[in-house]
Amino acid sequence: MQDPDATEISRRGFIVLGSSTVAATALPQAAQAQKAVAEPSLPPPWKVSLKVNGKACELELDARTTLLDALREHLHLTGSKKGCDQGQCGACTVIAGGRRINSCLTLAVMHQGDEITTIEGLGTPDDMHPMQSSFVKCDGYQCGYCTPGQICSSVAMLDEVKAGIPSHATADLMEPPKLTPEELRERMSGNICRCGAYSNIFDAINEVAGGTV
């Protein structure tokens, strides 16, 4: 007659052996799955050609790189500032193809072949753009963090007025817009100065516009 205890031991041994085999098979698969999650494959870089401040630039970028990060991190043009990084403060304003844009809201790959002008491209300390000189003369800044965006925006803004592009404050869309105080404030409303130097900024832009406001 078979010993009952021997049968019980054999059954337990079978269960232990089976569990060990399953674990040995499953653990490498689980480790591989975790490795796959931990190390996702990166997309290949994109080649982007820009003309920045008159200089041809060839970059290889992650397609998700903003124009602001391409300028600051890859071309080391740190004049354009990262303020809110949400397109609400205007500190990152640059001129692309003659139009002012928030460089934090647009991807660099979207500007293939575009001409980009940053604050560094407008003038130098020894040879300033008239708008830069006017900001200095009128003390149009305090901490200065928003100033590059303010200047780039105001230069492009005056060109918009000259080109006859209306704003939300333009009273008569059938007539060329005039740079009234309301027009100037509306057109510069996308550039925030947290120090509150607005009155001096207004004076600086007005001086370059010929004092017509």
Automatic annotation (TrEMBL):
SUPFAM superfamilies: 2Fe-2S ferredoxin-like, CO dehydrogenase ISP C-domain like. This is Xanthine dehydrogenase YagT iron-sulfur-binding subunit. Gene3D superfamilies: 3.10.20.30, [2Fe-2S]-binding domain (1.10.150.120). Pfam families: Fer2, Fer2_2. It comes from the Bacteria. NCBIfam families: PRK11433.1 (NF008514). It comes from Prosthecobacter fusiformis. Keywords: 2Fe-2S, Iron, Iron-sulfur, Metal-binding, Oxidoreductase. Residues 46-122 form the 2Fe-2S ferredoxin-type domain. GO terms for cellular component: periplasmic space.
